[in-house]
TrEMBL record:
Protein name as catalogued: Fe2OG dioxygenase domain-containing protein
Superkingdom of this protein's organism: Bacteria
C-alpha cells in the first residue's frame, strides 16, 4: 500500500512533500492496469474532520446539488468557489503536475493530439479560454440509503483524463456501506466492476472517461464510470478533485 503522511496540515510545502513521497511508478502501474490507484493517508484525520465539518458553512461554495432532483442518485454535494481553500488548492496543483505526464502518455498511446501543460495554472487558462470558468472541486455528503449513480465528470470540451477523490469519513465508525465503485466497458465485452476499498484520508486516483488498453493491433479505448454504493448506516463525506473547470 502507498502512504503519504505529514505532520503539518494546510501548508503548500507540506502538501508538495506528501505528493513527492508517493510511489508514482506504482500509481502509474495501477492506472495503466485497472484505471485506478489508491494512496493511503494522503490527508490527516484532523484535515478530513475539518473539511467535513465545514460542509454546512456557506462561504466556501458556489452551489449545492441535491442528487435526487437530477436523477444522479441520493445524497448531495457542494462545489467549492474560487479562491479554493489553501489545502485543496495546494493538493490540486501539486497532484496535477504529477498526473499530467501520465495523461499525456495515455493520449499519445491512443493517437490523441491533445497534450496537457506542465502546470495547473496553464491548463486552467486553457479551460477559461474555452468558456469553462466555474471551479469543480467538490465535497459530497451521503446519509443512510444514499448512493451515487455510475457517471463521468465531464463539464465541457476541455477534459483532463484523471481525477482524485479522498474519503473524509471513517468506515465502520462514521458509516457502513458506501463503497467507491468503478465499471469498465471494453468493446464487445460485458462491463467489469471493481470495488475500491478506502480508509479515512485515503485517496483514489482514477480515469475520468477513457483509458488505453493494449490489444493485438495496438492500444484502444475502454470507457470507465464511477459511483458510490448504497450507504447502509451513518454519514459519509468525500472530497472530489477534478482538474478541468466547468461551463
Amino acid at each position: 500500500m502507498l502512504t503519504a503522511t505529514s505532520p503539518t496540515p494546510g501548508n503548500f510545502a507540506d502538501i508538495a512533500a506528501r505528493i513527492g513521497r508517493i510511489d508514482w511508478a506504482t500509481v502509474e502501474s495501477g492506472l495503466d492496469g485497472q484505471g485506478n490507484a489508491t494512496v493511503v493517508a494522503l490527508l490527516r484525520q484532523s484535515e478530513c474532520r475539518e473539511l467535513a465539518t465545514l460542509y454546512d458553512e456557506s462561504g466556501f461554495y458556489r452551489s449545492r446539488v441535491v442528487m435526487g432532483r437530477h436523477g444522479f442518485g441520493r445524497g448531495e454535494y457542494r462545489y467549492y468557489d474560487y479562491p479554493l481553500p489553501k489545502l485543496i488548492d495546494d493538493l490540486r496543483r501539486t497532484a496535477y503536475a504529477r498526473l499530467a505526464p501520465i495523461a499525456n502518455r495515455w493520449n499519445q498511446r491512443l493517437g490523441v493530439a491533445v497534450r496537457y501543460p506542465d502546470t495547473l495554472a496553464e491548463f486552467t487558462h486553457r479551460c477559461h479560454e474555452a468558456g469553462q470558468r466555474r471551479p469543480t472541486p467538490l465535497i459530497l455528503r451521503y446519509g443512510e440509503g444514499d448512493y451515487n449513480c455510475l457517471h463521468q465528470d465531464l463539464y465541457g470540451e476541455q477534459v483532463f483524463p484523471l481525477q482524485l477523490a479522498v474519503l473524509l469519513s471513517e468506515p465502520g465508525r462514521d458509516f457502513t456501506g458506501g463503497e467507491f465503485v468503478m465499471t469498465e466497458q471494453r468493446p464487445r465485452m460485458q462491463s467489469r466492476c471493481e470495488v475500491v476499498p478506502l480508509g479515512q484520508g485515503d485517496a483514489v486516483i482514477f480515469a475520468v472517461n477513457n483509458r488505453p488498453v493494449q490489444g493485438s493491433r495496438g492500444a484502444y479505448q475502454v470507457r470507465l464510470r464511477h459511483g458510490v454504493s448504497r450507504l447502509r448506516s451513518g454519514r459519509r463525506h468525500a472530497l472530489g478533485l477534478i482538474f478541468h473547470d466547468a461551463t
